[in-house]
């Protein structure tokens, strides 16, 4: 990686130039963006948000260790090996050691290129200089993780609107990410209110999501998938990924296939349980009670009836199968209960 100092001496370098004629712009040979995790984390500023105790810290630590070792990220995506800085600013050395030992005991390996930091000033009080120094010492850096964004953003300037303050706080990180062409990952929280657009779940104003290059939101799914990772951004393709969490190994895995396949299985489990409790229900009633999309529930009930998992009666109502034997036709339901009981006992699932 060419150093920032070297680039500053070449004003026409594509990474530094800011003005062209249209003909010049069309003729420029820009380098391909650098990826920490291909298709998921690109150079620039990335924001990962999720609810407390959902597993964001396990996810970010696992990504950092995988990249530092050149192992597949999320047990599924090949990455290029390189130095990673992980600022675990809500942790202590003892807690980090316990997590890393848990990961290694489950089959992981030490990551010589992973730097772990538990204390750093806010960006305006010296934090930017700390990160800059590490980046200068590691010219082939692959990723910088800030866990959490709130710990390093610092106080908002007096008299600034919240939108402007959020934008300015994120821009401090983005300036460094862009200057060094290194992916940055900010760990953040979601708001308590529900939202149709997953980007609206991110705590704060639109100034925060507007300043970052990519937004990732980790949500827990109700059933076979432990979570769904929503991704959108300027250089990444918008997508939803089904995710599974192994509490014993402290590891997240990206599951094969679209997230919708797993959510459909989750929906079937919920519908089956509801119909057993309330036989003779119509899809609209089921959707309203479970807070699900009516069209999805209607299609799910029809498909379940076609497979003998539900009995369709005149009038558009649905009943449990005539056999009354649930042992063979509701595997998702028993799996759902197991997931919920396992999650409640996972302990430190940050």
UniProtKB/TrEMBL annotation:
Residues 310-350 are annotated as: Disordered. It holds the Pfam family AAA_25. Residues 333-344 have a biased composition (Low complexity). This is DNA repair protein RadA.
